Amino acid sequence: MCLSTQLCILVLTGSVLLSIFSSLEATIITDEDQALEAKKNLTWLIAQEQVTSGEESLLRNFKEWQNNSDLFYNVSYQHLAGTPSQQKKLLTLGLCSKQGIYLMHTLQSVFKSSSKSELMYFTVVVHLSDSDPKSLRQRSFNISRIFAPQILRGQLLVIHTPLAAYSSLENLKTNGSEPFLNPILFKQIADYAFLMNFAANLSDYFLMIEDNVRCAPNFIADIQRALAIWKERPWVIMEFSQLDLTGKLCHSRDLPRLASFFLYYLNSPPEKLFSTFYKMLGQEKPIQFSPSLFRSMDFSIHEDNFSSDNPFHDQVSSLKPKDKFQENNFGKPNNPPAFIYTDMQIFKDYLPEKAYSLEEDFFWALEPMAGNHLTVALEEPAKIRRVQVLTGPEEELVFLLGGKVELGYNRSENTKDCMYYVPLGALQNGKFDHKMLYKEMENRVSCLRLVVTTTQDEWIMIKHINIWTA
Fold first, then answer.
1. In the chain, what's the furthest Cα-to-Cα distance?
2. From CA 123, how far away is CA 287, in angstroms rounded?
3. How far is it, in rounded angstroms, from Cα 383 to Cα 92?
4. 426-451 b/e with 16+ CB inside 10 Å = b?
5. Residues 6+ apart with CB under 8 A from 199
6. What are the φ and ψ backbone dihedral angles of 372, each rounded to 5 degrees?
7. What is the secondary structure of 69-107 as a DSSP string?
8. How do residues 310-349 score in pLDDT, each as one tens digit?
C-alpha cells in the first residue's frame, strides 16, 4: 500500500507519464538521426512503483530510532575557507576528501566544465576529514590559494568536523542494535553524514560526488533538464553516474533524514545505502540517466580510445605530455647515460627514469614532501651546457609548486650519490631552463638533482629533465 493518498496519486501519474515517455523513446531509437542526438542528452530508464510492506516497516522503525537519537545535536563545523551564500542556490555539490590525491583536479573539472551562467546555480562543499591538524591546514591552504576566485564568489566552501563529533557517535546503537565496530567504515559513513547535515539548507537539491572524478562539459545544464522533466513526478534519488557515490541527486529537504539513515546502517558500505533509502520512501526502482555525467579520474585518460559521442571527448588528452622545449641554437638534448633514483612515492609504472627519457613520457609522484628529490647520477662526469626541467602542465595543477635544481660533484660508487651539491636555480611555475656560463662549465658534473621545496598533498608530473653536454 502507499504511504499516503497523495503519493498514490503521484505514482499513478508517474506510471501514465512513463508510458508516454516510453513510446517517445521507442520513436527515437527507430530514427538514426534522432538516436545520435539522444546520445548527447539524458534519457530516463525506470520510474518508481508502490512501496512494499517491508519498506513500510523499515520506515517505521527508522523514524522511531531517529526520534530517539540526538545524532547531530550541537555538532559544530570549522569553516576552513569560504562562507555560505545568503541566497539559496539550486544545487549543492558535496564531497568528502581524506588526503585525496585528485581533489584539486576534481574541483578544477567542476568549475571548468561549467559555463559562467551555470556557475551561478551551485555551490561546492568540500568536507576535509583529515585527522592530522598539520595536513588539514596544508590542504585547506592549497585549496584557498588555487581556488581563491571561486571562494570569494561564494562558489566553494571548505569545512571540517572536529573529532569530538565523531566521538559522540562511537557507542551509537544502530539498526543491528550493536555498537559500531569497524573504525574505517564508521569514519567514512560519518564523514558523509556530517557533510549532508551541513548542506541541508544551502540549496534546493544536493548532488554527491567523490574527490576523484572528472565532469562532463555543461553537466549542470543536463541536471537542470532532468529536473524539469521530473518536476511533476515523484522521486527520491536520481543517478547521473554508474560510480558508487558520485552522481547521486536528492532533494535537500531529505538530507537530514538521509544523513541519519547513513548512521542507522553503520555496518553497510555507503554506496549501498542510497537504494535502500529511496525504496523506503516509495521509489521502488532506480532512476538512472545516460550518458554518465561523471567518470573516475583514472589513468586511462592518457589513451586516445574515446569516441566523439563520449561527453568527455574534449577533455581526454589534456594530461598527455605534448609541450616542446625551445631548442634555439643548442639542438636537441642528448641526456648521457645515467642512473635515476628518487625518494618520492611512485605511482604504478610511471618510473622516475621516464622523466629523463627523450621520448614523450613522464614520471608521476604522489604527494611530494619538502626535501624529496629526483637525482640523475651520470655514468661518467660531463661538462654540461644547458639544463631544462619541466613539470606540469600548470593548467592541470600537476606541476611542482616549489623546487630547485642542484649540480653534484665527486660521485660515490657505493651510494651512486655525489659528495656535495651546489645550487643552480629555482623552478618558476614548475619550469626551469638554465644555459651554463663559461665558468660554470669548467668542472665536470656527476649528478643533477631536483629537490622539492614545497610540500604538496596532490600528485605531480615530472615530464622532462633534459641535459645538453659539451
1. 91
2. 24
3. 58
4. ebeebbbbbebeeebeeeebbbbbbb
5. 92, 94, 125, 206, 252, 255
6. -65, 155
7. --TTTT---EEEE----SSPEEEEEEEEESS-TTHHHHH
8. 555 444 334 443 344 444 557 889 999 999 999 999 887 8
The percentage of residues in the chain with a pLDDT greater than 90, rounded to a whole number, is 43
Interhelix angle 103-112/133-146, rounded to 10 degrees, is 30
pLDDT averaged per 10 residues in sequence order, the chain, 470 residues: 45 42 34 39 37 57 64 82 89 90 90 93 94 86 89 94 80 55 77 93 96 93 93 93 92 92 78 85 88 76 39 44 48 92 89 90 89 94 94 75 94 84 91 84 90 88 92
pLDDT at residue number 399: 87
Amino acid found at 239: E
Beta 122-128 vs 89-97: how paired, if at all?
A: parallel
DSSP per residue, 268-326? S-GGGHHHHHHHHTT--S-EEEES-SEEE--GGGGS----TTSTTGGGGGGGS------
Contacts of 409 (CB under 8 A, 6+ apart): 418, 419, 420, 421, 422, 443, 444, 445, 446, 447
Helices 53-67 and 255-264, axial angle in degrees (round to 10): 90
CB proximity list for 274: less than 8 A, separation 6 or greater: 237, 239, 248
- The secondary structure of 107-141 as a DSSP string is HHHHHHTS-TTGGGGEEEEEEE--S-HHHHHHHHH
Contact at 8 Å (CB) between 288 and 239? Answer: yes
Q: Which residue has the cell 573504525?
A: 183
Total-model pTM = 0.59
Give the position of cell 513500510: 56
Contact 259, 273 (CB under 8 A): no
Residue the block writes with cell 629537490: 451
pLDDT in tens, 348-382: 788 999 999 988 888 988 889 999 999 999 999 99
Please give the Cα distance from 293 to 114 (Å, whole number).
Answer: 12
* Rounded Cα gap, residues 407 and 439, in angstroms: 14
Cell output for 312: 568527455
CB-facing half-sphere around the CA of 449: CA atoms within 13 A:
24
26-85 pLDDT, tens per residue? Answer: 333 334 344 333 333 433 333 333 344 456 666 666 666 666 566 776 788 999 999 888
Q: Are 173 and 93 in contact (CB under 8 A)?
A: no
